[in-house]
Description:
Helix content is 13%, strand content 37%. By secondary structure, the chain is mainly beta. The chain is globular.
Amino acid sequence: MALLVSLLLLLSVTAVIAQDSSSPGYYPSSKFRSVGFYQGFNNLWGPQHQSVSQDQVTIWLDSTSGSGFKSKQPFRSGYFGSSIKLQPSYTAGVITSFYLSNNEAHPGYHDEVDIEFLGTIPGKPYTLQTNVYIRGSGDGRIVGREMKFHLWFDPTANFHKYAILWSPKEIIFFVDDVPIRRYPRKSDSSFPLRPMWVYGSIWDASSWATEDGKYKADYRYQPFIGRYSNFVLSGCSAYASSSCRPVSASPFPSGGLSGQQTEAMQWAQRNYMVYNYCSDGKRDHSLTPECWS
């Protein structure tokens, strides 16, 4: 009996260790130099709801407006990141985001790569939504490629690092250097190839953001605040020569993930992923051929 109890205890401890083991072994956020907010970005909208102090930008949403910012130049590949701190308490219906897009250059036919924090109600965690759009959002065939996660920490307690690696081969999403999703280029038709800008914003998405619109933004709790710092914009500008070499977020100059990074990604998906569009039987997967394989 004592041996059995010891064995069960060992298995339990091993399971806890496995649950908490997420070290990727490689930390791309330490490889790229950060830029000041004014060095890399301009206000896009809601300037009265935006403040900058020591290269930390704070944006907020109230009943009159939200706010957003945009990189000064477009990129055709790169590693783009920011440390972000979210607001606690009631944030239902509110989206705090960091993303790539060319919507203004190609309205109705744009590409987009999203990190979006879906607001929540007290007692329930934030949902981090990653998404990829390719040439079609807004033209009657809105094809999102959402994967959603809960996080292994409280994103309202401190700043945490969030990043997107976009190369000609793949898109990788990172949280505190842990790769949580890899979206490979399987065909030109399912991968964003046109230059994109880098954005951050906070806005009211009550119609869908929290439990498919069940909970709306409640302006009794305003203002809703998002804080950003440590911006990284490292990549090939759309204006750079064609010889610009895409950056890597792995130990391999050619890109991809190491074995340890892959294990960390599998850990994140196994323990914290709460939605995968490829596993959704209600979706029309003729529009998402990358799911077939």
